[in-house]
Design brief:
It is built from 6 helices and 43 strands. By secondary structure, the protein is mainly β. The radius of gyration is 29 Å and the shape is globular.
């Protein structure tokens, strides 16, 4: 019903906007792109008369758009200037109506050409473009080099601006150069820009703006340029980790770099090569308790990571370009999962291997038509091996020992791609195309729990050899399946008036598992309105429907646990160790899909005000609401019946995990965002969010405390944070010194209080004490301050872009504040209401960066 109403609104507004002929302004609008098709931000655009005199001047916004209003009829030249590109002029005539929007492609400047004007990029400008929302978080290459970034991990650094409540079942959506991907595809120095929440209602993407990270990578250049990074971290300069009795050793070495340049004499063929080697000899801290008393030790957690990527770009006529690239990645981590209450014996060794080929083609069909085709094909292999094959022993809230029982392997051959057609004409900017987020042949090998897992509700029960449950699996753990996810979209960015833009669109979604082919249409609408043509204030809002994606795990579970291939046996009140006779009459457990299940969807809506507070900074305040409709959850459809919980309704079947789409989520929030450079002492972004999120499910693998009353789990969501403050900025108080800072202040997420026992005998140890609601406890707050101090040593100053060596010292968690990951909610635990694992203590990092 809600989607039908939204669709009707879209249709009504579109008809009204296109039939209102009374307003016919004289304006010149267009977009500026580089040869790869990427928008150029902050380019200076001048309007010249026939004599070459400047009449007006503006700058392109975050989408590369520009506009001149109130232009009298006549002949003009539009001139665009931007560093590293050739100055370009386009002739245009104004008649009795607005001309078609101009698309200007700037050729890359070669050595003998000279740029006379250098516009400053990264300047936020309040505007009424659909993608010009000022509550976005955008950090370009220059800013990435100034702020503190731990281990050169830009994705994690920007992830602080995501909204956990808007993230789907398949996790955060990573978009690289316009298409979904598993990783950036290049090393850190080859990343050009990272964005979160730009154009949040765009139909080009499956998820809302605060659920996706968009990365733009560098292209090839006609001159040789390069960057080399060396990073060193050593525990000798760090504080002792929390919960450790002595300081464990750590030594991390990180080498990374990229180089770009021409491959042909005419410099139309260029390349980009990037590589990385990363080795971290770190330690995990175990803080647990067994029958012999407290367990406090450090365990080696070594990691090695290799990555190499190469790309070749070729410029064709009329600004067209084709490029192709290959990347290889390999990572090995030992003793994964150890730490907190997990003992060394329960760790795993994890490997990851991936090959990927990327291809892109941009073609200007005509001045009004543009086609962008991008796709990638890849293969990865990710085996997990338990370091100990013994049965796993879990004593709720005290320790996890024995073996990990986590042996598995995931393989995948995947294809992702998108073909986007753009049309610009009159007051319309139309985009439509096909998005293929994932077509994959997946292999899932599940060898977990071959020796079984014992769960005890307390140390006393463990001492008495009295487990509450025993879980073991037998049979064929190998399945292969094809997952297909395809979407189609269309949107029209309509310039109703010079001070009012409207975006109307719809996205269709299809997945070959968990699908509802008829109703998967997601309408979206966004608008931006300024009270006057040159107003520094913009009112912006929107609404949209965003469908979820399951990811491969639920599909693999349905295929594995069908009662035939991989059999799961759950024994209540088993002996320890279990006797073979106890398994003889135990029925197998299965995973089934609710016949009524559909793909869940999220409705997001927002309204806000943006204000240009200085020439280079903006302030915005927005209300954002989410509604999760038909969210995924699991129930035991064959759970023992209350009040005795003595027997299952179908005694020939064990646990019947039914995957449903019956959950609900409600979220409301106020976001206040400041972006820009109000003075030479501050450049960056600040964001404060006041919000609350409630739901009755934590995802597709979540079981309610009572499968016969799943709605009783309505409470604060696991991701709920009432207060969230983030600052990411840099400053240059002295010519010789650049300072960067990242500050995060969060209130705590909730903690679920449980008995540690399977009181209702459904095979799930998540039962709460009588009368206690879900997530009733308050978790730990989070306070973190990171600092970066850097100095540039400049060589060969006579060069246009001189060689520069940057020496930077970073300090993470400068205040050395103890940030517990969470508190233990098991009432039988010796650590109830306390933390057992924390974020790292203060750490120092030395960065050396050489650019040429």
């Amino acid at each position: 019903m809600l989607r039908s109403i939204l669709f009707a609104i879209l249709l009504t507004v579109s008809v009204f906007a296109q039939t209102d002929r009374r307003f016919t302004p004289r304006s010149i609008a267009g977009t500026v792109h580089d040869p790869s098709g990427a928008a150029i931000v902050g380019a200076q655009v001048s309007l010249l008369d026939p004599a070459g005199q400047q009449i007006a001047q503006t700058m392109t916004d975050r989408s590369g758009n520009f506009r001149f209003n109130q232009v009298v009829p006549g002949a003009y030249q539009v001139q665009v200037d931007q560093a590293s590109f050739r100055t370009t002029q386009v002739s245009i005539a104004i008649g009795s109506s607005d001309p078609a929007s101009i698309r200007i492609v700037l050729p890359i400047a070669v050595d003998e050409q000279r740029i006379t004007v250098q516009a400053e990029s990264g300047v936020p400008i309040v505007n009424t473009e659909a993608s010009g929302n000022q509550d976005a978080n955008i950090i370009d290459r220059a800013a990435l080099d100034r702020v503190p970034v731990f281990d050169h991990d830009y994705v994690t650094t920007l992830s602080r601006f995501l909204n956990d409540s808007s993230i789907g079942t398949n996790g955060v959506t990573l978009v690289v150069n316009g298409i979904e991907a598993n990783g950036p595809g290049v090393t850190p120095s080859a990343v050009k820009e990272v964005k979160i929440n730009q154009d949040p209602y765009s139909t080009l993407y499956a998820r809302p703006g605060r659920a996706r990270i968009e990365i733009t990578t560098k292209g090839g250049t006609p001159q040789f340029h390069g960057t080399a990074n060396f990073m060193l971290r050593d525990s000798a300069f760090d504080s002792t980790p929390f919960y450790a009795t002595s300081k464990p050793s750590e030594h991390r070495r990180f080498f990374e770099g990229s180089v770009t340049g021409p491959l042909s004499r005419n410099k139309k063929t260029t390349f980009l090569l990037s590589a990385e080697f990363d080795q971290d000899d770190q330690q995990a801290v175990v803080f647990a308790e067994d029958l012999n008393g407290p367990v406090n030790e450090t365990v080696p957690l070594p990691m090695q990571h290799y990555f190499i990527s190469g790309r070749v770009f070729h410029d064709l006529k009329s600004g067209n370009q084709i490029w192709a690239g290959y990347s290889f990645e390999h990572q090995i981590t030992k003793n994964m999962g150890v730490g907190g209450t997990v003992l060394p014996e329960a760790g795993t060794d994890v490997r990851f291997l991936e090959h990927e080929v990327n291809v892109g083609y941009t073609r200007t069909i005509s001045p009004r038509w543009l086609n962008q085709l991008r796709f990638l094909v890849g293969h990865f292999d990710a085996p997990v091996t338990s370091v100990n094959e013994a049965p796993q022993v879990v004593v709720s809230g005290a320790f996890t020992g024995g073996g990990a029982q986590a042996d598995s392997r995931r393989t995948e051959y995947h294809f992702d791609g998108a073909d986007i057609v753009s049309y610009v004409g009159g007051r319309h900017q139309l985009k439509f195309g096909i998005d293929v987020p994932d077509i994959s042949r997946r292999g899932a090998d599940d060898f977990t729990n071959q020796a079984g897992t014992y769960t005890f509700d307390s140390l006393a029960a463990y001492q008495n050899a009295d487990p509450s449950t025993y879980l073991v699996q037998r049979g064929q753990g190998h399945v292969v399946f094809l997952e297909r996810t395809v979407a189609g979209f269309i949107e029209d960015n309509l310039r109703v008036k010079p001070n009012f833009s409207l975006t109307l669109g719809v996205r269709y979604y299809f997945q070959n598992y968990f699908h509802d082919d008829v109703n998967n249409f997601g309408p979206r609408i966004a608008f931006a309105y300024a009270p006057s043509t040159n107003s520094k204030t913009v009112i912006r809002g929107g609404s949209g429907v965003f469908f979820d994606r399951t990811g491969p795990r639920p599909i693999a579970d349905l295929l594995h646990f069908d009662g035939v291939h991989l059999q799961r046996f759950i024994v209540s009140n088993a002996s320890y160790p279990v006797k073979p006779a106890q398994l003889a009459g135990v029925p197998t457990s299965v995973v089934v899909l609710d016949p009524r299940a559909n793909i869940p969807y999220t409705v997001q809506y927002s309204i806000g005000v943006e204000r240009q507070v200085t020439a280079k900074s903006t302030l915005s305040a927005s209300y954002v609401g989410f509604r999760g409709i038909g969210s995924f959850r699991s129930i035991d459809a064959n759970a023992p019946t209350p009040p005795a919980y003595a027997a299952r309704p179908n005694p020939s079947l064990g646990q019947e995990r039914m995957i449903q789409s019956e959950g609900y989520q409600k979220s409301n929030g106020l976001e206040v965002t400041f972006r820009g450079k109000p003075s030479k002492y501050f450049s960056g972004q600040i964001q404060y969010t006041l919000s609350e999120t409630y739901n009755n499910t934590s995802g597709v693998t979540y079981f309610p405390g009572n499968s016969y009353d799943p709605n009783a789990d309505w409470a604060r969501a696991d991701t709920d944070r009432r207060h969230k403050f983030d600052l990411l900025a840099s400053s240059q108080p002295l010519k010789a010194l650049t300072l960067g800072m990242a500050l995060s202040l969060y209130s705590g997420k909730p903690v679920n209080e449980t008995t540690g026992n399977d009181d209702n005998h459904d095979g799930v140890v998540n039962d709460r004490p009588p009368g206690v609601p879900r997530n009733s406890l308050y978790g730990p707050s989070f306070i973190n301050l990171d600092l970066n101090a850097a100095h540039d040593f400049v060589f060969a100053k006579s060069r246009k872009e001189p060689m520069t060596l940057t020496v930077a010292l970073n300090s993470f968690n400068v205040l050395n504040h103890k940030n517990d990951i969470t508190y233990v909610g098991v009432i039988t635990s010796p650590f109830f209401g306390r933390g057992v694992q924390a974020q790292p203590a203060r750490r120092m990092q030395l960065n050396l960066e050489f650019k040429f």
